[in-house]
User: Fold these one by one.
Assistant:
Number 1:
Amino acid sequence: MSTISIKTPEEIEGMRLAGRLASEVLDYITPFVKNGVTTGELDRLCHEYMVNVQGTVPAPLNYCPPGYTPYPKAICTSVNDVICHGIPGDKVLKNGDVVNLDITVIKDGYHGDNSRMFFIGEPSILARRLSEVTYECMWLGISKVRPGAHLGDIGHVIQQHAEKNGYSVVREFCGHGIGKVFHEEPQVLHYGRPGTLEKLEAGMIFTIEPMINAGRRDIREMGDGWTIKTKDRSLSAQWEHTILVTETGYEVLTQSAGTPPPPAIINAPAQAVAA
Ligand code: MF3
Ligand code: CO
Ligand code: CO
């Protein structure tokens, strides 16, 4: 029996608003993500925008899952070999860095959760490709979402695409159900086998947020109790959207004017075979 909640129309409306606002924080911060800015300054700007402009609450601030210390900041800033949960601080972003900004807002009790990758100046060829492949991984996962599909279908397509490109999938962190609760059932693994795990139904809402490493998948945890890095110090990338299962497929809830379009591999017409 599935324990994944089915959202009511009223809850879905609340999640649409929270999702749009979460995406608008990323739109807002984009012009500030450049050479010389500190991650702490990005956190301060986002925090002020949420509280003073949007009337939202940053979900990470003081978030304290079992076994953790309270998260001290409003957003996560994960630079280069940081996989996820990087804590904003004095770190100065410099040309060639790649950074994931992960934003979760609460509006009227509902959570919207999303993240994007940003390049400082011109990225290395590897960094650009890793970010692009990770974006494709997220979207290939999203494209599997419809009633009757299985969670394993999503994980499988993400793992297949990452590994085909010579990259690895982080196993210790996953996507998650989301609503009035930040992290709820189900766990959305970014690896797996088609046709396995829970069957999707209209009204479910969860995130898809693959963390893909350029090197090996192994992680190491920093002494701050939050920051997760690649063990081999290779680059890591992540993208995240919050997704609603609809009667016919999916709806991306974390959408706004600045949301990047789906990659070309989504709905791309089948390649014609040369005569
Ligand atoms: N936003 C992250 C996610 O995608 C969770 C961050 S928890 C925090 O699930 F406390 F580090 F912010
Ligand atoms: Co999430
Ligand atoms: Co997130």
Note: The pocket of cobalt (II) ion (ligand 3) is lined by residues 102, 104, 113, 115, 209, 240 (CB under 6 Å).
Number 2:
Amino acid sequence: MIRIERITLREIRLRLREPFRISSGVVDERRILLLELRDVSGLTEWAECVAGEQPNYSPETIDTAWLAIREWLAPRILGKGVGSPPEGVFEILDRHVSGHNMAKAAIEMGCWGIAARLRQTSLTKMLGGERDRVATGISLGIQRDPDALVQRAQRAHADGYRKIKVKIQPGADVEFVRAVRAALPKDVSIMADANSAYSFSDAPHLALLDEFGLIMIEQPLHRDDLVRHAALQRQLRTPICLDESITDVTRCEDMIALGSGKIVNIKPGRVGGLAVSRRIHDLCAAAGIPVWCGGMLESGVGRAYNVALASLPNFTLPGDLSPSARYWEQDIVTPEWTMDAEGMVTVPRDVVGIGVTVDRARVDNLTVRREDLRAPGNG
Ligand code: OSB
Ligand code: MG
């Protein structure tokens, strides 16, 4: 049994080493919502809400998540006992509260972190993760021209990344991918992520990507377009991977039933946390659908949850789990996340809790907003 008596919300600002551009927007400074949860026993653990600055990737933002956590979600958990492992926290948060998955996930994941600490074990073991190391890919933002993208891709390949993902949009797609494909050895795994930039009438254009042997194309169409993704998949040789569309287990069942995609990107924030992530993982494993762990430009805190999740057995493709230095001058955790020359990140299987320690002095320094949430009567 876990009983959370306080959740401290903080907003910190962390500048990316370089702006990250996707088809729906650009970010140069992350506004990151951190949660620090404290159990009645006095144990604490950190979690991260991955909502962005703008409602472009999903309807949520850091500001809507803050509101949802304070007004509707934290009161359902604070001062009340929840089970351990916290398999049922998502249902407690989800009943009669639609949407706000990233806000729900932040609390839910924090409960997993606390549960691991209480059991004196690692988050990875608590989840049933099996791997000691997870394979890492890089997600490269849209660049000014193909040459600039090729430079970044070559550097990433030399660094050891096991998958090169390039963001695309109309006007920055076929020629950009062609240039990257031509610049890298034949056996390098390349993929493209459109973040919903296309419509079904673009099918003949998207089919031009087939000649490059991409391992997948991620989320070409609108998040709600499962039927059109299925029609598109029938016209493409390249496997479609869904990201934005897969917001819960049912949506994943629909993808499988309709044939809307052949691969799933699992982001715990998008689906409401680790328990739902694991259910999607299990569903896909049973259906022969490979999964990989996506990223949301997380700090070292959110990354810890992603790495633990990615150690489950059906995460068979490299995740968007780049090391700290790919994003930040300096991360907020020690040790920082690193990647070896084989493109592998070590899973902290034997470290109690999430596997990294938050640099509290640095977080205090970066904090621009803070709010303590407590159970009523514990004020
Ligand atoms: O679509 O996967 C995406 C970042 C922000 C919003 C959406 C996406 C991304 C990424 C970043 O691709 C991956 C990473 O964290 O390295
Ligand atoms: Mg994506």
Note: Residues 193, 195, 218-219, 243, 265, 294 surround magnesium ion (ligand 2) (CB under 6 Å).
